[in-house]
Amino acid sequence: MEKKILITGASGLLGRELVGIFQEKGFEVLAHYAHHRPRRVPRVRWLRGDFRTLSGISRFLRRNRVSLQKTHYLVNNYGPITHRAVKDLRGRDILEDFSRNVLPAFEITRHLLEGEDLKVVVNILFEGAERIRAYRNILSYALAKHSLLIVTKSLSRAYRATRFENLFIPPLTGAKIPGPRGASRSPVEMAREVFRRTGET
Description:
The protein has 201 residues and is of the alpha/beta class. It is built from seven helices and six strands, in the order βαββααβααβαβα.
């Protein structure tokens, strides 16, 4: 059977490695990007989508309705991060991070679940997203990712036929916002872990 996967945020640091490993393993890859279409790769179909608003997500799903049929795997990797000191944070920052991190994952997952072909959903979360703690510079992002974790745990209970995996990743080597010294992991290593979580090893 043809194995089809949708990867959101596929043109980013981790996304490019995810596209590479799944393409190499024989998957048909649907790769979401926001602005600049990456180079053509065999067995990879690049799908443009603006996930900043609910209407943009809906347009993406409508425009790619046929391509998305019979999608078996989903990696929710899209999730911009607002890096701002708590004292400088405003309500619009929290709203924007929630909209960009939770709504696309929820709407796309729900849409694919309706087709009854979705076998595995892997959500990319940041290391420590299960712990309640104080944040200095990523509070709005952390709130969104905590919310996504609750959403996917709830979906997992409602849709027993689909397996949900939450992958908590440390800062990535080469990321714009570096983590503590010695705490980062390579995007290649994390992409391999995502592949392993699909159960296709």
